[in-house]
């Protein structure tokens, strides 16, 4: 009997350790997958200002012993804007396929004379983040299920907005530029917007901006219109600046879970 109790104790300890090592959450995802390709065009008034391409690699990558989507976001200025403010930015996130959490995050920013290149590694078991080029002293403590800028957006795409009340704020912890903060997005219900491809049913979202921001007019100066379907991809984004406004329109897409339904 004593040996039996000791055996049960050992199994309990081992199983507890096993659970701790495999404590990743599981997030159902029917909204995106490998091979998704989306292109956007940004207008400032009547001028073409920039272009952005969002790509989910057709193949999966293993990072930190976890299968991951590799998502690239490339942004660049065009036309007259490129002569005044030259931007060539790349962000890359390796997103855990089952937990929808980042394992690595890469940035390469080229904005006029400004340059920044950095690789960030996430350790979700220890709740830490570290830049690969730095020393061990530069390890940051982060909350559970912390995101980078890209993975936070992809996590929002997995949310069932039919179960959320209009006006409700969704908060997602995120880490960027050595800082932990809460990405806050307010759900504003559903609507129909007109695009160059036609009208489409959308979900309305407002990223909640901190007060006193030098660029934006008010707390909810950014309005994101997301397709009200399985994909939940932005089809239009409107931004109110202190001087003028910007609009980002969907230009082209392929590899979505289902075709977008314009009418």
UniProtKB/TrEMBL annotation:
InterPro entries: DUF3108. This is DUF3108 domain-containing protein.
